[in-house]
C-alpha cells in the first residue's frame, strides 16, 4: 500500500484532523512505508529518540534507507553503561550521522546526589520517578522542542504496559507532536532477524541477557521466563516498569 502523501511538509502535529485521517492508513502500513511517510511529511523536523537498544538500531538502519533526513537524539543520563557509549560511536562512524545528545540539568543532578545520595531511586517509587524525571523526562522535553514528530522503538510485545501501543499517537504530553512507533507490531524474533540479515551493530549487553538496556544501576539481565523489561527497576512491581518518557494511560 502507498501512504506517502503529496501534501507539503507542514507541521502535521498541529493539524489534528489531518493527523487522524493519516493515522488510519499508517496503522496498516509497513515500517518502510511509515518511515518514507515521515521523510516526505516531516523530514528533519522529526527525530528518532534512541537509547541504542536493538529496536532503535533497526530504526536507525531503516531510516538511513527510507528517511535519511530523520535526526537521531539520545538522552545521556550520566549513568549509562559503557557498552552504550561504545555503540553510539559505532553508529556515528558507520552511518556518518551526528547523534544529538541531551544531558540533565547540572544543578538538579548535583542537588539530587548531594542531598539524597547516588542510589536514592532504590528507596521508593516516588524517589525513582524523581530521578527519572531529572535525568530523562526533562531532557526529553528539550530534545523535542522545535520538532513536529518523534519516532520510537516501542513494541507491543515488550511488556504488559505496552500492549496497546499504536503506530501513530497524538502526543499531548509534548504539545501535540506526532509520536510514531513503526515497530509496534514487530516480534522480538523479527527484530533480531533484521539485525542478523543486515549485519546491524547492537549493544554487547544484549548477548549477556539484557533485552532492555537503560541506566546501569537500574538494569539487569533477565531470566528466560521473564518478560523483556523485567530487568528494568526489578525491585519494583512490574506495572511500574516505565520511566515517564512513555506515560501509561
Write up this protein.
With 249 residues, the chain is of the alpha/beta class. It has a single domain, classed as HUPs (Rossmann fold), CATH 3.40.50.620. The chain contains seven helices and six strands; from the N terminus they run H-H-E-H-E-H-E-H-H-E-E-E-H. A six-stranded mixed sheet has the order 3-2-1-4-6-5. The two termini are 31 Å apart. Residues 1-14 have low confidence and may be disordered. [4Fe-4S] cluster binds at residues 131-132, 215, 218. It is an enzyme of class 1 (oxidoreductase). It catalyses: [thioredoxin]-disulfide + sulfite + AMP + 2 H(+) = adenosine 5'-phosphosulfate + [thioredoxin]-dithiol. Residues 47-221 form the Phosphoadenosine phosphosulphate reductase domain. It is found in: Cytoplasm.
Question: What brief labels describe this structure?
Answer:
six-stranded mixed beta sheet; 7 helices; Rossmann fold; 6 strands; single chain; alpha/beta
Amino acid at each position: 500500500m502507498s501512504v506517502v502523501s503529496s501534501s507539503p511538509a507542514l507541521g502535521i502535529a498541529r493539524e489534528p484532523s489531518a493527523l487522524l485521517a493519516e493515522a488510519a492508513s499508517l496503522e496498516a502500513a509497513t515500517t518502510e512505508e511509515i518511515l518514507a511517510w515521515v521523510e516526505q511529511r516531516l523530514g528533519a523536523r522529526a527525530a528518532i529518540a534512541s537509547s541504542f537498544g536493538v529496536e532503535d538500531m533497526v530504526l536507525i538502519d531503516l531510516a538511513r534507507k527510507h528517511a535519511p533526513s530523520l535526526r537521531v537524539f539520545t538522552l545521556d543520563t550520566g549513568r549509562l553503561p559503557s557498552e552504550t557509549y561504545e555503540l553510539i560511536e559505532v553508529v556515528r562512524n558507520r552511518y556518518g550521522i551526528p547523534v544529538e545528545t541531551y544531558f540533565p540539568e547540572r544543578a538538579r543532578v548535583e542537588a539530587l546526589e548531594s542531598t539524597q545520595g547516588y542510589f536514592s531511586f532504590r528507596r521508593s517509587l516516588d524517589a525513582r520517578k524523581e530521578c527519572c524525571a531529572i535525568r530523562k523526562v526533562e531532557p526529553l522535553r528539550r530534545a523535542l522542542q522545535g520538532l513536529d514528530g518523534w519516532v520510537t522503538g516501542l513494541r507491543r510485545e515488550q511488556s504488559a504496559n505496552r500492549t496497546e501501543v499504536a503506530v501513530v499517537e497524538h502526543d499531548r504530553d509534548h504539545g501535540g507532536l506526532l509520536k510514531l512507533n513503526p515497530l509496534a507490531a514487530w516480534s522480538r524474533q523479527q527484530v533480531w532477524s533484521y539485525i542478523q540479515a543486515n549485519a546491524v551493530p547492537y549493544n554487547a549487553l544484549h548477548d549477556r541477557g539484557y533485552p532492555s538496556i537503560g541506566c546501569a544501576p537500574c538494569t539487569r539481565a533477565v531470566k528466560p521466563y521473564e518478560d523483556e523489561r523485567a530487568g528494568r527497576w526489578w525491585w519494583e512491581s512490574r506495572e511500574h516498569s516505565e520511566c515517564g518518557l512513555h506515560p501509561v494511560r
